[in-house]
Write a structure and sequence with these properties.
The chain is an alpha/beta fold. The protein is about 40% helix and about 25% strand. Helix 3 packs antiparallel against helix 5. The structure holds nicotinamide-adenine-dinucleotide. Nicotinamide-adenine-dinucleotide binds next to helix 9 and helix 10.
Length: about 500
């Protein structure tokens, strides 16, 4: 199925052609070759999936949680067996290196493992004798049909931020993957089918904005999980909550890292080169701004420029490659345009990764690592999510000034500090406005049993993805107050 040219939806336990749907080409960003056609499904396709999801939910919600997690154990084993094949699909449609693809699969598998703890994670609470002879219990119950809409940059991990928790807690789950990277999702859903989820419990509909809006508006879809850019996250959150639905919508980012003079600058620059240029800068936790404090500036600048210029860029399945292309030609044009606008506003370009061709991959959408210097705190580029391998350098005279610069942003996905001072680290982690904080860590990605805690314009909602937050998001609490007086029994 995953290798077929024309992709299909997975509805009610069957692969189905999206009859009548317009088709969109899916490209390998390293070669520009079309590798599949994805259907842009219609309202009728969404309706059919929701109907099947509802049917499945009736029995699935009553299936004991210990039984519900058995297909998840099998899914974990199948994902482990298929790491190599999945990684090749990810690299081919998304562009990241093979090693990066394996890394994201591992982070996805972690979520399957954590969701297997649903028998404990979804336990309720109770108190005996809240008044004499009266007991009170809180249960967690599933919502019904829930949906996730996912972005292009982690085609395996991000669907797995949601799917395992949704189904383990008794919901039926509908995935709308990014139309730019639908092949990985198709393979994951094939593995779910093999793992033995009952028909309708895991479903997938391909499509674009129209399908997303149809899913959000459908009265029988109870909750929306979304990951993507901030304007879309905001719009999806507004639309879903207008319908009174639960929504957790993760948006874009512009992540700063602060380097203090007492940091080990060699190590910090190596870690931050990986953070800024790994996955071609297309990670929502990529560092895109480095703020050096005091005399850290000259050494860090030289070291990071060396890392940027020496990074080996090419097709991610080739050996020794450290960075692949960005997702599309459109993306490359957009990134190069932002760099040019910054240059015309007086920003310096220390390493220029534009207009690059890679031997044997001349049609690929490559932008090499780029380092911008003298970036003004309030300029256009410092507030714009570039989502490419571009690092902006800024300078502060003190930790306090650096923290103020970190907090002077609309995004709050991640902030990192490099230092050997515990005092500075504590001050930083207490005061920065960011949901994910790294201390001597360049990509502070929470492991699956912690919430993925974006703040401000990086997240709209209350409960985040992963772990206990995932379980709470996909369940409703029901509180029962009960009494059984002895002397009443004779009356019934
Ligand atoms: P995107 O917003 O373009 O698309 C995300 C999803 O929304 C896709 O499935 C797409 O089909 C759908 N979509 C696109 N436009 C829509 C619209 N107008 N209405 C409804 N749905 C729409 O994002 P992308 O380019 O695929 O992904 C990159 C973005 O995702 C970056 O901004 C990145 O920071 C962000 N991201 C955030 C996190 C996080 O955890 N905060 C994680 C990964 C990616």
């Amino acid at each position: 199925m995953a290798s077929a040219t024309q992709l299909r939806n997975f509805v009610g336990g069957h692969w189905q052609d999206a009859a009548g749907a317009e088709l969109l080409g899916v490209s390998n960003p390293a070669t520009a070759e079309t590798i599949a056609q994805v259907p842009l499904s219609s309202t009728a396709h969404v309706d059919a999936a929701v109907t099947e999801g509802l049917k499945a939910f009736a029995d699935w919600r009553e299936t004991p949680v210990g039984e519900r997690i058995q297909p998840l154990f099998r899914l974990k084993a199948l994902l482990e067996e298929n790491v190599d094949g999945l990684a090749r699909i990810i690299t081919t449609e998304c562009g990241k290196t093979y090693g990066e693809s394996v890394g994201e699969i591992r982070r996805g598998i972690e979520n399957v493992e954590v969701a297997c703890g649903a028998p404990v994670l979804m336990q309720g609470v109770n108190n005996e004798d809240i008044a004499r002879g009266i007991d009170e219990h809180m249960f967690r119950q599933p919502l019904g049909v829930v949906a996730a809409i996912t972005p292009f940059n982690f085609p395996c991990m991000i669907p797995l931020w949601f799917l395992p928790y949704a189904v383990a807690t008794g919901n039926s789950f509908l995935l709308k993957p990014s139309e730019q990277v639908p092949l990985t999702a198709a393979r994951i859903v094939e593995l779910c089918d093999e793992a033995g989820f009952p028909a309708g419990v895991v479903q997938m509909i391909h499509g674009d904005r129209n399908v997303v809006e149809t899913i959000i508006d459908h009265p029988d879809v109870r909750a929306i999980s979304f990951v993507g850019s901030t304007p879309v996250a905001k719009a999806v959150y507004a639309r879903a909550t207008l319908h009174g639905k639960r929504a957790q919508c993760q948006g874009g980012a512009k992540n700063p890292a602060v380097i203090l003079p007492d940091a080990n600058v060699d190590i910090a620059s190596e870690i931050l080169a990986d953070s800024a240029f790994g996955c071609a800068g297309q990670r929502c936790l990529a560092t895109s701004v480095a703020i050096t404090v005091g005399e850290a500036t000259p050494t860090f600048t030289e070291a990071i420029c060396d890392h940027a210029s020496s990074r080996r860029v090419g097709f991610g399945l080739d050996d020794e490659i450290q960075m692949g292309p960005v997702i599309s030609h459109n993306s490359r044009t957009r990134i190069e345009g932002i760099i040019e606008d910054a240059r015309s506003e007086g920003v310096g370009i220390k390493v220029d990764g534009r207009q690059q061709t890679i031997a044997n991959f001349e049609d690929g959408s490559f932008v090499k690592p780029t380092v911008l210097s003298n970036v003004p705190v309030d300029g256009g580029v410092s507030g714009t999510e570039i989502f490419g391998p571009v690092l902006s350098l800024m300078h502060a005279d003190s930790v306090n000034e650096a923290i103020a610069m970190v907090n002077n942003r609309r995004f709050g996905n991640q902030a990192c500090l490099f230092t050997s001072s515990g005092v500075a680290a504590r001050e930083f982690r207490t005061r920065v406005r960011a949901g994910n904080v790294g201390i001597n860590v360049g990509v502070a990605a929470p492991i699956a049993f912690f919430p993925f805690s974006g703040w401000d314009d990086s997240f709209f909602g209350d409960l985040h993805a992963q772990g206990r937050h995932g379980v709470e998001f996909y369940t409703e609490t029901k509180v029962v107050v009960e009494r059984w007086p002895d002397n009443w029994s004779r009356k019934f």
